[in-house]
Design brief:
It contains 5 helices and 6 strands. By secondary structure, it is of the alpha+beta class. The chain has a single domain, classed as Outer Surface Protein A, domain 3, CATH 3.90.930.
Length: 154
């Protein structure tokens, strides 16, 4: 049985810009990025592609063997799930339109590229700013993004 994942859209905002997927987890305040195969995987998850179709598509595009690609995809999917960016869903939970999404066909096959395992980069450097409530947690004089002084600082 093919495994399917869905972007956890209730708490994740994301976009792909110039081949780089950028994700923001609005609860944890962490943001993430990935490029190359990772960006393709993120795009295909958003399009409703299952694990097998993702592996097949990467095997067609890259020079690595299927076992290496499968291991990399499984590891990457597990990391996405660990950070609660995606969740595994059952086939019955897939919307009908997404369950049948076919990858685009190409008239002329492109040369296969060297495979680099997908890497998820995690950033927490602005977590505190991202988690501020702009109406209640900011300085009344300075506004966002200046946090209110705590009682210990006053």
């Amino acid at each position: 049985m093919d495994r399917h994942f869905a972007i956890n859209t209730e708490v994740v905002a994301s976009d792909i810009i110039d081949g780089e997927a950028i994700m923001l987890h609005r609860v944890s305040g962490n943001y993430f990025s990935t490029e190359g195969a990772g960006s393709l995987i993120w795009q295909w998850i958003g399009e409703g592609q299952g694990r097998e179709r993702i592996v097949d598509s990467l095997t067609e595009r890259f020079t690595a063997g299927r076992p290496e690609i499968e291991t990399s995809v499984d590891s990457f999917l597990a990391e996405l799930a660990t950070h609660k960016l995606v969740r595994e869903i059952g086939e019955g939970d897939l919307p009908a339109a997404e369950a049948s999404v076919e990858p685009p066909t190409k008239a002329v096959p492109e040369p296969r590229m060297r495979f680099a395992p997908p890497a998820l980069h995690v950033y927490s450097d602005i977590r505190n700013l991202l988690l501020l409530d702009p109406l209640h947690d900011v300085s009344e004089l300075d506004g966002w993004p200046t946090p209110k002084p705590t009682d210990a600082v006053r």
